[in-house]
Structure formats: C-alpha cells, structure tokens
Design goal:
Layout (H helix, E strand, L loop, with lengths): L1 E3 L6 H8 L5 E3 L1 H20 L23 H12 L3 E4 L2 H15 L8 H13 L1 E3 L2 E3 L8 H11 L4 E4 L2 E4 H7 L11 H6 L3 H31 L9 H5 L4 H14 L3 H5 L11 H4 L1 H23 L7 E3 L4 E3 L7 H29 L22 H17 L21 H31 L8 H13 L10 H12 L9
Parallel strand pairs: 1-2
Antiparallel strand pairs: 3-5, 4-6, 6-7, 8-9
Length: 502
Amino acid sequence: MLEISGQALSLADIASVALSERTISLSERARGRMQASREVIEQVLREGRVVYGVNTGFGKLCDVRIPASELETLQLNLVRSHACGLGEPLSEAETRAMMLLRANVLARGNSGCRVEVVETLLRMLEQRVHAVIPEKGSVGASGDLAPLAHLALSMIGEGQARFGQQTLPSMEALRQAEIAPLRLAAKEGLALLNGTQAMAGVGALALWRGLRIAALADLAGAMSLEALRGTPVAFDPRIQELRPHPGQIVAAGHLRDLLEGSEIRQSHVTNDPRVQDAYSLRCMPQVHGAVRTAIQHAREVTEIETGSATDNPLVFADSGQVLSGGNFHGAPLGMVYDYAAIALTDLISMSERRIERLVNPDLNEGLPPFLSSHPGTSSGYMIAQICAASLLNEAKVLAHPASSDNVPTSGGKEDHVSMGMTSALKLRQIVSNAESVVSIELLAATEGLDYRAPLRSSKRIERARELIRSLSARLIADRPLSPDIERVAQAVGHGDFDEFVS
C-alpha cells in the first residue's frame, strides 16, 4: 500500500497506481494537517475576512465579494464553468495518475479542504471510478483548470465517468460503486482546480516510458552494430572518462555489456578495413547518454512537483494566514517536457539512420538490399524504414516547444501562462513514436543478424533475438509488417524487454 501525506512521489510510485492495482491510504499525519488548515478557512468565514477564492470571485472577478449564502454555489459554479475541455479523453492510466497526484497535493494540508475531499478521490481510485477528462483545454495556469474541473465534476456526481467497461453519468457510476458524491464546501472547488496534476500525470507516465525506450535504444543500436559488422571500440571506457557526462558513461557501459562475447565481432576484428563507423553507430554513448540525461532531469523536476503545494491561495495553519501566490504555474514542467521531447526526437533520428543503414545496399556491409530474401521481387524492410521516417517527421514537428508560447487569459489577469499540458501531450506522442521506431530497428537488426548466421552475437543479444522472433517470424516472403511492429512495440510497453534495460 502507498501511504500519501503530500510527500514527493517517484515515477515508479505513480506508475504502480496508474498501471496496476496498488492501493493508497491517507496518513494520520496528513489528516491532522488537513483538519488544521480547514479550521483556518472556517475561521476566515466566521470573521468575515475577504480571502481570494473563499468569498470572492475568480480571476478577473477577484474583486467581487460573495455573500455567505452563495459560497457553496460559488464553488459549484466554478467547477461547472471550468469543465470546458475538448478532445479525446485521457487514458485510464493518465486519469489515475492525475487523481493520485491531486489527492497527494491536497494531503499536504495547505489547501484548506476537508479530509472528505481526499477520501473521495481515494475511494474512486480504489473502486476504479474514473472521470472522463478531455485532454485539451488547459494552458497550464492557474494550473490545469479544465482537466481538473472535469475530475471535480465527476466527484460531485456530474459529468461522465468510466466504471467497469461502461461510460456512465457520474452519479450512476458513484452509486454503483457505493461512493457518496462530494458536496463542496467553501474553497474546495478551487482547491480541486488549482494545480499542475494533469500535466504532471500525463508527463510522469510519458517519462516512465521514455526512460525505458532510451535504455532500450542501446539494445537496438547494439544489434544494428552487430548486423552491420561495426566496432565497439568507440565504447571503450577510457574514451568516456575523458568526457565524463553521467549519461554517456552509463550508455557506453550498457553497450559494452550487451556486446560482450560476440562471435560476430571476433570474426572481423583483425581484418576490418574500416577505421571507424558512421556517427549513428559510433556516437551512441554521446547521443543516447544525452537523451538519458535530459529525461532524468525532467524526472527530477516532476518528482519535486508531485510533493509540492500548487493550490492558490495557500493556507498556513501555523500562522492562520491565507496567502495568494503562483505555485500553480506550470513553467517548471512545461520546459522540461519540451526538453525531453527534443531529446527523444533526436533518439528517433539516430535510430532511423541505423535502420537506413541496415536496408540500404550501399551502406549495409553485404546484407541483401532492404533485407529482402528476393530483392526486386520482394521489398523486404523498404517501407518499414519509410514508416520510421514518417514517425520521425511527426516527432520533429511536435518537438517545437510549447512552453515558449503565451496567450494571456482571464481578462489579462492571467497574462502569462505555461502551456505545460500541451508540452506533456506532445511528449506522450513523441514517446509513442520512439517506441515504434525503436521496435522497427529491433526487427530490422534481428533480420540482419539472421543473415550473419552461423555466427552468433553475444548471449544477451541472442536472447533478445529469440524474444523478437517469438513476436515476429523471419521475413522469408513479403507480408504486411504493421502487425509485427505493433506486437514488438506493445511488448516494449508491457515491459517484456526490461531485462535489457539498464
């Protein structure tokens, strides 16, 4: 069980709740903090103090005082009016990640909401009642207003939710799951809406996949190197020590480990006429390592965010103060998601270049043209490389940073926004493209290795080749390769290749 108290959560924690059955509980310490912060809000109401979002309007309307008789209506209208998202709904896993992160942030006890708010979220997670949350409509300040509003809407029994295999009115989904709909008290609608948990949820799961594919690209590259009879000399640790970037050192070590004991390498180690390989082979430690570093940086920022109070205003129970600030602004996440997207696009670019070398008869070291058993009659992997080029092109377009844009909103009160949700959604698509391109390289490299028989590669690469062959038969005659690519990409996503990830 994962006990939440507003602490920083790891990507592994998030994935364990989003992708599997890990249960969650609220710590007693968090309950005490939440109750103390709620008492501050109750004191504000008793004293009639004017506090943003508690008894005022929102955004440009922050100067409008709301009478006590309309405070619950204020919160209800906030949720309803802000539930304005469009597009495809977030996946179940992304919705669960978002729910976990919102519950954890509220558990810090700086939002002034009742314990019942977090308990409702945890109960919905436990019973797998998932709000239908459109993925588009957030500009990332004041946080992810539209996505979080759709989540809050479901909590109060409005909007749509998924339960079991059905999409139902939220009230019916809650009824079937035996969960009482939440009735919002003062400040609680705002507490549910202000924050970065939509972009953080989508981004965290994308980074979780991105870390895997960055490491798996080493395997694909090592297999391509072997199929092309390249040299691992460029991975020598002495070279890496002269430029000691951590990612580069890790990638080079991983490549050496994958290639250790190869018969193919030994077959041409003494009579290889080439001085050095092309960059897409020789510079794998430098490029793959830089990608690892970029994703790791994005991971660190995301994990800090998971344990941060991103509401506004924030409640400080020790002093009784309620302070307005800008912790909801998504700039920290938007910028690193753009950085990770650029890095993964470069990973796709390098993988595509190795696929081209495997199929191009002018570059593939004696392998048949396009890895075809009957060149001319059969096209082999010709179109697979074209597919990789198409995915690369899309990634290049998506790699343009969203965080460099700004469109002022809310009558100029919110005059600088992060566009962090756009950054997260783009990153998700680029990760998906990377998984497909690396899967194409794994297939093409395996085909190339088959032509090097009876020579065998290293033990680890031979195990990987067996796994790939369990998913895709050798290309004796042309067939549609889409199912093969999709099977390998799905296996990558399911963790079937994780023994080769390091």
